[in-house]
Specification:
By secondary structure, this protein is an alpha/beta fold. It has helices at residues 63-74, 135-145, 157-162, 172-183, 228-235, 248-256, 264-268; strands at residues 9-11, 17-19, 24-31, 34-40, 50-51, 53-56, 82-91, 96-104, 117-124, 152-156, 189-190, 197-198, 201-206, 220-223, 241-244, 260-262. It folds into 2 domains: 9-145, Nucleoside Triphosphate Pyrophosphohydrolase, CATH 3.90.79.10; 152-268, Rossmann fold, CATH 3.40.50. Strand 1 and strand 2 form a beta hairpin. The longest helix is centred in the first third of the chain and has 12 residues, at 63-74. This is NTP pyrophosphohydrolase. Residues 20-145 form the Nudix hydrolase domain. Its cofactor is Mg(2+).
Length: 273
């Protein structure tokens, strides 16, 4: 089984017909308050409407791989410019469509690359609803619009280290470094920030003797100049934040700031630390 083996019409458990034996996936790039939309060619399903670039997944592909491939086949967008934020899934039972939301650092000119695409445009987020939208995308857009920013996972280093009696107090900086390195391998996270699958920014807040630990690829380390709790509570503001701590007082402050809060066990079950 290989390239193109997903190109087939299937019937889901709801009795609807869909394109994609193994489901389908589409890409929604976000940049500077705009999203990139495809104007579908007249002869395609929903011809003349606007939606995401995408199509059937092949048997060997995950959602991100399929969405990037389909976008490269249908448009001139360079996949190398794309950084996934997360995946929103529409599950029909036996068939699902995955919308891969991703950032692009700038808004490069994008045009058609196949007969399936009439045009492509960077559309201001506030004007998307004004266009004639492809039916399934129109239905999904209210949820999608709420997830156009990268989810952030803020980790209370002292609290997570303190949840395990492994002698961390003898070398706080060393223990913080080990936690940082474990977080660098976190990868995608199911159910974070409202996404079905999230690719979060990870922020590790250190304080006291653990200050001075440097950031690495995949983990931004913030050294609290004063109270670590104050720094974490401030980082909890801004939406799409999840804080890892078991401290009751800090938990209440973060929830008041609008963040979700999970305990250290949630994190330790997901990393090799």
């Amino acid at each position: 089984m290989g390239k193109g083996d997903g190109d087939r019409v299937v019937r889901c458990e709801r009795g609807h017909l869909h394109w994609g034996r193994y489901g389908a996936a589409g890409l929604l790039p976000v940049s500077d308050g705009h999203v990139l939309l495809q104007h579908r060619a007249w002869w395609t399903m929903g011809g003349g409407t606007w939606g995401t670039f995408g199509g059937a997944r092949d048997s060997h592909e995950d959602a991100v791989t399929a969405a990037l491939r389909e976008t490269a086949e249908e448009s001139t967008l360079d996949p190398g410019l794309v950084s996934p934020l997360g995946i929103l899934r529409e599950d029909h039972g036996g068939w699902a469509y995955d919308t891969v939301i991703a950032t692009v650092e700038r808004t490069p000119p994008v045009g058609p690359a196949s007969g399936e695409t009439e045009d492509a445009a960077w559309v201001p987020v506030g004007e998307v609803h004004l266009r004639p939208l492809f039916g399934p995308f129109a239905k999904a857009w209210p949820r999608v619009r709420e997830h156009l920013r990268r989810p952030v996972l803020v980790v209370d280093c002292a609290n997570v280290m303190g949840s395990r009696p492994d002698g961390w107090w003898r070398d706080r900086r060393g223990a913080a470094t080990r936690l940082r390195d474990a977080l660098a391998g976190l990868g995608d996270v199911p159910g974070l920030g409202g996404f079905d699958v999230a690719f979060p920014e990870v922020v590790l807040v250190v304080e006291g003797q653990a200050r001075g630990v440097e950031s690495v690829a995949g983990v931004r380390v913030v050294s609290a100049e004063g109270s670590g709790d104050d720094t974490i509570a401030e980082l909890a503001r801004g939406g799409a934040r999840t804080v890892v701590t078991a401290d009751r007082g800090l938990r209440a402050r973060c929830q008041e700031a609008g963040a979700e809060v999970v305990g250290p066990r949630w994190l330790l079950d997901r990393v090799a630390y």
